[in-house]
Here is the input.
Amino acid sequence: MVDIKENRRDSELRAFASGQQHDKFHGWLTLVGVMLAYGGICGSVTYAYGVFLPSMSETFGWSRSSLSGPYTLFVVIGGILSPLAGFTIARFGARKNIIFCNIFAALGLLGMSRVDELWHVYLFFGFMGGLGIAFAEYLPLTTIINNWFVRRRSFAMGLLFTSGGIAGFVFPPLIGWLISCVGWRVSWILLAFVHVLLAVILAGAFIRNTPEELGQIPDGSAENIWLDRLTFLSTKQVYSTPVDWTLGEALRAPALWMLIVLFSVILFVLMLLTTHQVAYLQDLNYSPITAASALGLMLGVSIIGRIVCGILGMRFEGRYLVAIFFACMCLGVLSLMNARG
Here is the structure.
């Protein structure tokens, strides 16, 4: 396991010693690129569906439970197929995954503007959106972060997920306003073009798979490599270990399965809120724009937690942070259950 990490560090040092580096560390621009991609995914796909749900339900007379089916398919496909992204990343690179799969997801958004039957929603959002996101979201984005950052990895991850909170703060009220102005069909079309702009064009322009492509090394300084090693040896902080795990070793680790279960629970709660919160608040006699703004506010406040968690992750063990923030989420959900018009 250590040999894998050592070989990579040796190649990084050779890249630094060769003098072929760009003048400026490209990792921060790459971080901007993955933030744009993740923000586009969250804003125009993941957090958008719930804002459209009341209008589409009213147009076709479909029940909200029937419209929940496509979103469930979206989540299931995204969850089950995400591990397969590892194979396409190894074959084509994370950058191509992000670009081409987000194009596929954008085509699904365009298709949503033409739906007339419920199975169309399953096809365009549930299948096409889910398939695109499965191969373009967490695994390729975090792979790129891991390639570019070592000592600052937790901070970079915090910024990456902060972009999702920013998108969640901006997009739902904006989509609600668009629907009130131009209708839900045109809003899906506009959303597809915004998604291509953010997650394909701009993200593709900034993202590079590895620092070695540009003759650079993680964190932008050779000294940081040795600093990371000394920090690990002196503190024995196993939660920031530089050891690479093989697939078999990871699958046999109980901690991995505990994390999978925990993340699944969190994802279920978050998806439930983003899908039904707008409709729920409208049932409490709030206007569509106010209901969408409430969803945006919830996701906007999460920006604070994402930034703070990224910073604290460089100083404290992740298991304690997970316990604290998960408890906060539970309290928030319980308070929403007592909401009244």
Q: What stands out?
A: The chain has one domain: 25-242+249-337. The chain has a mean pLDDT of 81. Residues 169 and 300 are 4 Å apart (CA to CA). DSSP finds 15 helices and no strands in the chain.
